[in-house]
Amino acid sequence: MAVQSVGIVGAGQMGNGIAHVFALAGYDVLMTDISEDAIQKALTLIDRNLERQVSRGKIQAEDKAAALGRIGTTTDITELGQCDLVIEAATEREEIKQKIFDQLLPHLKPDTILTSNTSSISITRLASRTDRPEKFMGFHFMNPVPVMQLVELIRGIATDEPTYRTLCEVVEKLGKTSASAEDFPAFIVNRILMPMINEAVYTLYEGVGSVKSIDESMKLGANHPMGPLELADFIGLDTCLSIMNVLHEGLADTKYRPCPLLTKYVEAGWLGRKTGRGFYDYRGEEPVPTR
Ligand code: CAA
Q1: Which pTM does this prediction carry?
Q2: Longest distance between any two alpha carbons in the chain, whole Å
Q3: For the CA atoms of the chain, what is the radius of gyration?
Q4: What pLDDT, in 10s, does the model give residues 28-42?
Q5: Which atom of ligand 1 is nearest to the CA of 193?
Q6: Beta-strand (E) ranges in 53-95?
Q7: One of 16, 119, 120, 242 is an active-site residue; which one?
């Protein structure tokens, strides 16, 4: 099936990046969010990130203008019903995703492929509550979407082969690379990445190192582009905690227990960059470690 129009639910960190790369690859994009304010913020960010690519010579000014021209927005989710492909990129809470699918389903074309950018929730379970489990898949982008090469493709138990093949082609057209993951808690990237981040928080909690020494160790000693605590702040500490909980509950193994210090930061509302404070304080000129 040829995909031309793409509906994106959620204009947040992931949604705006997904809209950016689809529009740049020539797809017609319709982005929705419950808040008009969030939509306006997303459009400003997309403009800024496209401009960054123009100034680095990655794309031409005409490409930027054409991409922006392909992005439509609406606060009415039912308008996404006519899209060939829908990507849900809302908050990582199952009841919210469920409500979105319930609102959307009566308006979808019969052959629309429905996907979720969830980083950890069971695709099989989300799919089972829709009218099209065979046309439902996990479509997991990495942050920042315009920069990261990988997209994880996760088939639920009922996903059919044409749906999977269509999404492989879409990823190729985006200029990215797909990795196929089985539908088990947190798939591949987060199954490996989150325990590493959680272990970095334990390393801090047990006083083995400071925020600065832990991050520097992994940047300079393992050649990671960001230290694990800096990366946790970038992803969002609430997201990190929720993925650790999915691993802990889904695999029932104590090796996945979330570090109590991670829980404490989330309870304080120190969620990382998005709230101005996490393992670093971002409110001044330079990020300052909070421990
Ligand atoms: N949009 C477009 N381009 C962007 C961008 C954005 N939002 N952010 C950065 N860039 C581009 C820059 O323009 C720059 O491009 P060139 O290489 O062409 O010059 C390049 O990315 C590097 O940016 P900077 O020089 O500003 O900064 P940097 O060198 O410090 O790199 C980074 C920034 C790419 C974010 C890098 O630090 C990195 O790779 N960090 C790790 C990110 C990571 O691990 N992401 C995965 C998180 S896990 C996840 O997403 C899954 C989940 O479910 C939680």
Answers
A1: 0.94
A2: 56
A3: 19
A4: 999 999 999 999 999
A5: 48
A6: 71-74, 85-88
A7: 119
